Amino acid sequence: MKLSITKRAAPALAALAACAAVGSAAAQSAAPAPITGNAEAARDKVSMCIGCHGIPGYRASFPEVYSVPMIAGQNAKYIESALKEYASGARSHPTMVGIAKSLSEQDIADVAAYYSNLK
Questions:
Q1: C-alpha to C-alpha distance for 86 and 100, rounded to whole angstroms
Q2: Amino acid 89: pLDDT
Q3: Cα–Cα distance between 44 and 40 in angstroms, integer?
Q4: What pLDDT does residue 39 have?
Q5: CB 92 within 8 A of CB 26
C-alpha cells in the first residue's frame, strides 16, 4: 500500500518536522556548561581544610596516625579528582568522606582552584 500526503496535510507535517528539529537542537544546547573553579569564591569554603592541610608536618590521629599532605600548589585536577573519589567512596578516609560529600561540584572546583594557586 502506497501512502500519499494530501496537500492539506503536507504543511502540518512540515511544521511538525520543524518543531522536532528545534526541540532536538534545544535539548542538545541545554547541556550544562562546564564548571570552572573560582579561587576567590573558595575563601569562605576552605575553613574546614586549613585545620589539617594548612599546618606543615601535621599528623592526624583519626582513624589512625598519619601525615596529612600539604595541598597548597597541588594540581587542581588532582584535588578535584581526590575530592570526588572521597565523595563516591572510592577513597575511604572518614573525615575526608564527610567533607567531600558536603561539597557541591562548584565547591569542589572552587576549592581546587584555591589550593592550586597557593604556593
A1: 6
A2: 96
A3: 9
A4: 96
A5: no
| Secondary structure of residue 25 in the 3-state scheme | helix
Q: Angle 76-88/105-116 helices, nearest 10 degrees?
A: 140
Predicted local distance difference test score (pLDDT) of residue 1: 54
**What is the rounded CA–CA span in Å between residue 32 and residue 18?**
24
Which ranges of the chain have pLDDT less than 70? 1-29
CA distance 70 to 83: 15
pLDDT reported for residue 26: 52
- The separation between the first and the last C-alpha atoms of the chain, rounded to the nearest angstrom, is 76
List the CATH code of the domain at 41-116: 1.10.760.10
- Which amino acid, residue 27? A
Is this prediction's pTM over 0.90?
no
